[in-house]
Design brief:
Helices cover 55% and strands 13% of the residues. It is of the alpha/beta class.
C-alpha cells in the first residue's frame, strides 16, 4: 500500500470513528441507557472492500467497548443510493449508522 493510500485510509478511519462517536454521544444523552439493542452499521459497498474492512474494525471495537452487538450490513449498488435510502428511512434513534 502506498503512502498516499495509507494516508487516505487513515483519514477515512478517523472520520468514521469520529462520526460513530458523535452519533453515539448524542444518543447517550437523549436516552441515558443507550445501547439497549444491537447497532447496525450500513456499508454502501460490497463485502471485502476498504469501507467494509474499516467498518468491521470499528464494529469490533464498539462491541467490546459498549457490550452490545454491532452488525455490519453491506448494501452495495445504485452508487450508494440503496444504502443511503435505507439509512434515511431508519428510525432516528442512533442504532443505524452509515459509513460514507
Amino acid at each position: 500500500m502506498s503512502t498516499h493510500h495509507r494516508h487516505g485510509f487513515l483519514k477515512t478511519s478517523l472520520f468514521l470513528l469520529a462520526t460513530v462517536l458523535i452519533a453515539s454521544s448524542f444518543s447517550c444523552l437523549a436516552s441515558g441507557t443507550w445501547p439497549t439493542k444491537p447497532i447496525k452499521i450500513i456499508v454502501p459497498a460490497p463485502a471485502g472492500g476498504s469501507l467494509d474492512i474499516l467498518a468491521r474494525t470499528v464494529a469490533k471495537g464498539l462491541t467490546e467497548k459498549l457490550g452490545q452487538s454491532v452488525v455490519i450490513e453491506n448494501l452495495a449498488g445504485g452508487g450508494g443510493n440503496i444504502a443511503f435510502g435505507y439509512v434515511a428511512k431508519a428510525a432516528p434513534d442512533g442504532y443505524t449508522l452509515l459509513v460514507g
